[in-house]
Specification:
alpha/beta; single chain; 7 strands; globular
Length: 253
């Protein structure tokens, strides 16, 4: 495919937060963007923002942990926007708790959305990328992959994303496909607001406390992460693969 043709990107979990910011950023980079979330209606605002700026976008309802829904969603994107050559595995959930209080459902839900979802979405998109001789897979990890109290399920899933990414890079590189991961630190989103609720503090207080521990002295914004993802999905990033980029406002101790 000529690089002058518009490439199609799929962003999962694109209704809000990092996913929405990424969808908007990739559209601004000239991509046609399919915004996926549990319901088509949830992505309406993201798509509206993109189309209002003159971009092409499609809202698609899909549970990324459901193989049939994933197959149908990717087929719809290919039919209505074009074959997807960029995939951002961003969909995620929190079910935080200490190990002795964590239910099997809490564990399974997090694993299914983060790991099974990334697997199913990538498997469904990779044939389109192979056919094009070009592909970019970016999956969202987290600083929690290094361990975080009360997040044994989330930490394990995000560490798994890193191994998943490095293996994809080795398997798919010969087809012109790169695979990288972005691992955000504290980003102000609805998801991190849930952490404040769990800890019994206000979201403002949590952000202020977190900022004092971050070298740049502020918490991250979804747009900070979107910028890193945009780099990995770019035409000029073809020799960067199998990497994990921590977007955390400074080095990790």
């Amino acid at each position: 495919m000529s690089t002058t043709e518009q490439r199609v990107a799929i962003v999962t979990g694109a209704a809000r937060g990092i996913g929405a910011a990424t969808a908007v950023r990739l559209a601004a980079e000239g991509r046609a963007v399919a915004a996926l979330d549990l319901s088509e209606e949830a992505c309406a605002g993201t798509v509206e923002q993109i189309t209002a700026a003159g971009g092409r976008a499609l809202a698609v309802g899909c549970d990324v942990a459901d193989a049939e829904q994933v197959t149908s969603a990717v087929a719809r994107v290919a039919a209505e926007l074009g074959p997807p050559e960029i995939l951002v595995n961003n969909a995620g959930v929190l079910r935080d708790n200490l190990l002795f209080r964590m239910s099997e459902s809490d564990w399974d839900t997090v694993m299914n959305v983060h790991l099974r979802g990334a697997f199913l979405m990538t498997r469904a998109c990779q044939s389109h990328m192979v056919d094009a001789g070009f592909g970019r897979v970016v999956s969202l990890s987290s600083t929690s992959a290094l361990g975080n109290r009360g997040q044994v399920n989330y930490a394990a899933a995000k560490a798994g994303i890193q191994g998943f990414t490095k293996t994809l890079a080795k398997e798919l590189g010969k087809f012109g496909i790169t695979a990288n991961a972005v691992a955000p630190g504290f980003i102000a989103t609805e998801m991190t607001a849930q952490t404040a609720d769990r800890l019994g503090v206000t979201f403002d207080d949590l952000q202020q406390a977190a900022a004092q521990e971050i070298p740049v002295r502020r918490v991250g914004r979804p747009e900070d992460v979107a910028a890193a993802i945009a780099f990995f999905t770019g035409e000029e990033a073809g020799f960067v693969s199998g990497q994990v980029l921590y977007v955390a406002g400074g080095p990790l101790s």
